[in-house]
Structures are given as structure tokens and as C-alpha cells.
Amino acid sequence: MTDPTTTTSTTTAASSGATLEQLEERVTARRGGPEYGHDALITCDRLVRIFSADGVEVQALQGLDLLVRGGELMALVGASGSGKSTLMNILAGLDVPTAGAASVAGFDLLSMGAKERLSYRRDVVGFVWQQTARNLLPYLTAAQNVALPLQLRGRDGPREMRGRAAKTARVELLLGLMGVAECRDRRPHQMSGGQQQRVAIAVALANEPSVLLADEPTGELDSHTAEQIFAAFRRANEELGTTVVIVTHDQTVASEVRRTVAIRDGRTSTEILRRTEVDSATGQESLVAREYAMLDRAGRLQLPAEYTEALGMRDRVMLELERDHIGVWPDDT
Ligand SMILES: Nc1ncnc2c1ncn2[C@@H]1O[C@H](COP(=O)(O)OP(=O)(O)OP(=O)(O)O)[C@@H](O)[C@H]1O
């Protein structure tokens, strides 16, 4: 490895030595490449959301990039105020970003009109909120709550779902899948918090959404009940193929998914991927987790605070391009 202290210019290391023709070729090749997020179900591209309250601006999202592929079950984590709920409200179609781009299942979340937004919220995304009371209508039974979205879709829905028998069958199927079939004729106040949340997931799944969004769905529940709720999300993901995004503070939930994305100061900062590895000698399976930092489209990287603080890195760092990695050193001038 070269001694970083002798390096005078590092930012041009990647391009130094390239001829003008080679640089032009690289730019042309990049232009012809696939669009960002072309194969993703959810694409957030440099998403910005600024709130103004009493003349004060709050930048809740500061250029957030996120791609979620169809069929994923993933968790979003982050400190209070990092922008998780703001992102969920945008993905749910309840709020509109200030700038950037966001699309879900081909719907452009910035440009869609009122009518399109309504059908997006009714048919493309389902959501489950933390407050159990917010998810269900108190004067309807569990079965009636699940049937409501099907009735609201009415004539716009698929032909095979228009008859009363088909609707009843779907309600039964979803309540069964969520393990709350016995609650079908009960109103919310006659159910436990956990049962209410599982009925809420059934409601959210009624119109076969592409994406199920949940904002702290286990926040009001004890850990055993939280596990049951998480198992219900997993069943929705595995048996119905629904893409699931869960915002959670719950470490158990976050560690049970294959992908956990952390948000910091309105941007995605790190990501943990978990995969099953089989020991070639013993044949034993184990779950291996690996943490990654996010590199945004402009090449910006957020270094973990504990790393930069440990080495006293501030304002400026030195970079060195090596054959298979980039070195980062504290500025010693
Ligand atoms: N409607 C609003 N008006 C003004 N500021 C807002 C509004 N909604 C959110 N904010 C601010 O935006 C930032 C991000 O808030 P957000 O609710 O998205 O964070 P969060 O990560 O979900 O936090 P928590 O985990 O506490 O729910 C915070 O500083 C918050 O005060």
C-alpha cells in the first residue's frame, strides 16, 4: 500500500492516466446504461421533503436514495426525527415530496393527480400504523373491516372479486392467514391489541396491494405479541408475495429480516444484509449479517460517527484509490 502522507492529489486518482478519449467513452457508456431503479418496485431518488412551520424550515429528507425490489421483506430503522415517518407518508401517497423522484409500482408519487392518488392508495399500497385504533373502524367487526376496501373498490376491482361470495371468501382467507379467524364477528374493543394489528394487516392486504407499509406496527405491543405480528407480515410476504417495508425500533424485528436499512439525518446511511451460509465441513446453516455504508449516486458516502470520532476525522479526509478498495485517512495537516 502506498504511504498516504506522500499523496498530494487523491481525488483525481481514479481518472489520472486516462486519455480524453477514454474519459469520453466512459461518459457515453454511463449514459447508455440502465436507468437508476429500473428493476425496483420502489425507487426513491434524491428525495427531499422540507417542512416549514412558523417561518422555520425543517429538512426531514435530505436527498434520500432507496431501492426496494419486488418480493422483499425489509426493515427501516433510525433515530427519532431521522425522517422514517416522513418517508412512509410519502410512499403511502399521503404526502408529496418537495423535490427528487419517487415511484412505486410504476406510479410517480410527485406527479400523480388526485384521482390517480386515490386509486394508488386504495389498490397499490396497504398500510398499518402503530396506533391500533387508527387501523380499524371501531363500529365494524373484523370481517366488515376487511370487506370494506373490497366494497370501496367495487366496479374498478377485478371481475372475479365483484360477487358477494368472492368477497366473503377473500375475507375468510385473509383472517385465516393472519391467524385471527376466530375474531371475524368481533369489534375492535373485543380483541387484544395483537389481534387488532393482525386484522389491520388483513385489511391492508384486502385489495392485493403490491406493497405493504407498516410504521412501528409493534410499538404498542409486548415482545411476544410483537413476534406474532412480525410472523403475520412474513406470511403475507411469503404466501402472497407482497413486498413489505416495516419501520421499527424493535431490534428483534430488525434482526429477523434479510435487509435492514438505517436512515440518518434524512438519508439512507447504512444497510445490513443477512444471508444463510452453509458450513461446507459440517453442513450446518448459520445466518451471517454484514453491514454496508450507502454510496449515493453523486458518490457521497456517510461514514459512521463512531469510526470518524475514533480517528478524530472532521471536515476533511485523505483518500487513496487502491486496486480493490479506497483508503480513508485523517487529515494531518
Ligand atoms: N408536518 C411537519 N411539520 C414540521 N416538521 C415536521 C413535520 N413532520 C415531521 N417534521 C420534522 O421532520 C423531521 C423528521 O420527522 P419524522 O417524523 O419523519 O421522523 P421519524 O424518524 O419518523 O421519528 P420518530 O421515530 O420519532 O417517529 C423531524 O425533525 C420532525 O420534527
From TrEMBL:
N-terminal signal peptide: none
Assigned keywords, A-Z: ATP-binding, DNA-binding, Nucleotide-binding, Transport
Stored Gene3D superfamilies: P-loop containing nucleotide triphosphate hydrolases
Superkingdom per UniProt: Bacteria
SMART domains, A to Z: AAA
GO cellular component terms, A-Z: plasma membrane
Residue ranges occupied by any SpoVT-AbrB domain in the UniProt entry: 290-333
UniProt xrefs under CDD domains: ABC_MJ0796_LolCDE_FtsE
Low complexity composition-biased segments: 1-19
PROSITE patterns referenced in this protein's UniProt entry, alphabetically: ABC_TRANSPORTER_1, ABC_TRANSPORTER_2, SPOVT_ABRB
Name the UniProt record assigns to this protein: ABC transporter ATP-binding protein
Source organism (scientific name): Streptomyces qinzhouensis
